[in-house]
Amino acid sequence: MSRRVFVTGGTGYLGRALIETLVHRGHHVRALVRLGSESKVPLGAERVTGNALDSSGWAATVASADTLVHLVGTPHPSPAKAAEFKAVDLPSIRASVAAAVTARVSHFVYVSVAHPAPIMHAYIAVRSEGEALIQANGLNTTILRPWYVLGEGHRWAYALIPLYAIARQVPAWRATAERLGLVTHEQMVRALVAAVENPVQGVRIVEVPAIRAGLGGMAS
């Protein structure tokens, strides 16, 4: 079934690949993009120019969508970027939720982060606030919680793979190692596509093991 999808953050690390895949699969996609970056939106998607931190200029264009995918966020998040999380990530999710509520979209897809965790407290706090905001507004939503997405420009974490293998062998560490595990860019895009194509009533949380497994591993 072809869906009408509005994507914020469509020119980013996950956004471009997601849009390309959705267009290829026959979905109608509108992508929010900053002025001057229109050429970065993949072919086949309709471009909507606007400020992701303020939906007043583009909320009306969401009205024709049945799914809103929110991908705006600080690139390469780290503990040193706490101020950016509050300046970019938080107002952007507030703007997208406001637009989704006004447009009465039937499904909201949000990329959050795995938690709890021993580091990245500021990032987790902002993303958790985003989750709470979505749910407080009564939106049907799929929330994906990756920890780190491996891919081009995001390869340093490959060095941790042997440590994860060891942790999974220790019963006391196994659950944490799985929840805070690594996912590939391809796995993440596949999970996002599955979320779009299989909307949920209520709230669906998708943790790392389910992201790796695709739709078959998603839990409501």
Structure, described:
With 220 residues, this protein is an alpha/beta fold. It has one domain: Rossmann fold. The strands form 2 sheets. A 7-stranded parallel β-sheet has the order 3-2-1-4-5-6-9, with helices on both faces. Strands 7-8 form a two-stranded parallel sheet. Strand 5, helix 3 and strand 6 form a beta-alpha-beta unit. The radius of gyration is 17 Å and the shape is globular. It starts with a strand and ends in a 7-residue tail after the last helix.
Would you report the number of β strands?
A: 9
Shape annotation: globular
Q: Can you tell me the residue ranges where pLDDT is under 50 for at least 5 consecutive residues?
A: none
Number of helices: 7
Helix content: 25-40%
Task: Provide the CATH architecture.
Answer: 3-Layer(aba) Sandwich
What fraction of residues sit in β-strands?
15-25%
> Nearest-angstrom radius of gyration?
17 Å
Q: SSE string, helix = H, strand = E?
A: EHEEEHEHEEHHEHEH
Oligomer: single chain
Structural class: alpha/beta
Give the N-terminus to C-terminus distance in angstroms.
21 Å
Strand order of the largest sheet: 3-2-1-4-5-6-9
- Per the CATH scheme, the topology name is Rossmann fold
What is the CATH level 1 assignment? Alpha Beta
CATH H-level name... which superfamily?
Answer: NAD(P)-binding Rossmann-like Domain
